[in-house]
DNA sequence: TTGTAATATCGTAATATCAATAACCAAGGA
DNA sequence: TCCTTGGTTATTGATATTACGATATTACAA
């Protein structure tokens, strides 16, 4: 792999890292790695205020990590790209393996 | 996996993410994933000023991502934990596979 | 003394965090 | 229709953290 390509990949991937690099945002991503969830499900799963949850989901959507599907009153969020799901899953494999 | 354990893992892992979440720091980690390198080797490999390189290496060492071995004038940096090497490698596998 | 390797500090600009609060909108009574 | 509620989004402001160039410093070898 040449250096130029490597650098452009690093720009792209570090932006994803940055969007995930927060305890609660990572937690959200871990839950979403298991499949689509709506906002109140996420609110129950994570200890987080509604306002922050909304901000975090919004931010990760803006940065193309998440996509939304609206159904009546509910917004269902899911991971936008299967590479990101893979990333979360390998992080779980590496850091959360049972001892 | 219970929620409490999951949360504490997320705190730990998101701190690692945060330390890596920068184009040039990620680039450094990718080079270091191949093995120990000294500072001038890294300076040649990455387009980065000496002052920033020093700051970045220092920061990632402080946050336990890197370790240093000094040999005369040279400081050799390497990744401090094999889980972090694994993480970098799986990121490379996911995002840098050749098409 | 000059060059190489590395570290430390400073100041400014840019970002991020987070709580509080307001706004929006659709559905369901009264 | 008006009013309320539930679910969600947007805005603001105070505070903290980062980024990064400039500059100074330490250490040692040729």
What does the secondary structure layout of this molecule look like, with pairings?
Two copies of one chain form a homodimer.
Chain A: H1 3-20, H2 23-32, E1 37-38, H3 39-45, H4 50-62, E2 66-71, E3 74-79, H5 82-95
The first copy, chain A, binds a DNA duplex (30 and 30 nucleotides) through helix 4.
- DSSP strand content of chain A: 5-15%
Task: Using the coordinates shown, work out and report the CATH topology of chain A.
Answer: Arc Repressor Mutant, subunit A
Number of domains of chain A: 1
Shape of chain A: globular
For the biggest β-sheet of chain A, the strand order reads: 1-3-2
Order of helices and strands of chain A: HHEHHEEH
How does this structure look, described?
The structure is a homodimer. The first copy, chain A, is built from five helices and three strands; from the N terminus they run ααβααββα. The first copy, chain A, is of the alpha+beta class. Chain A has a single domain, classed as Winged helix-like DNA-binding domain superfamily/Winged helix DNA-binding domain (Arc Repressor Mutant, subunit A, Orthogonal Bundle). In chain A, strand 2 and strand 3 form a beta hairpin. Chain A starts with a helix and ends with a helix.
The gist of it:
2 copies of one chain form a homodimer. With 99 residues, chain A is of the alpha+beta class. The first copy, chain A, has helices spanning 3-20, 23-32, 39-45, 50-62, 82-95, and strands at residues 37-38, 66-71, 74-79.
């Amino acid at each position: 792999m040449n250096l130029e390509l490597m650098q452009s990949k690093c720009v792209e991937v570090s932006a994803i890292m940055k969007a995930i690099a927060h305890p609660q945002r990572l937690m959200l991503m871990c839950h979403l790695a298991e499949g689509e969830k709506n906002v109140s499900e996420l609110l129950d799963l994570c200890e987080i205020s509604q306002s922050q949850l909304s901000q975090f989901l919004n931010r990760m959507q803006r940065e193309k990590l998440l996509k939304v599907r609206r159904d009546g009153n509910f917004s269902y969020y899911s991971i936008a790209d299967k590479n990101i799901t893979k990333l979360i899953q390998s992080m779980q494999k590496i850091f959360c393996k049972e001892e």
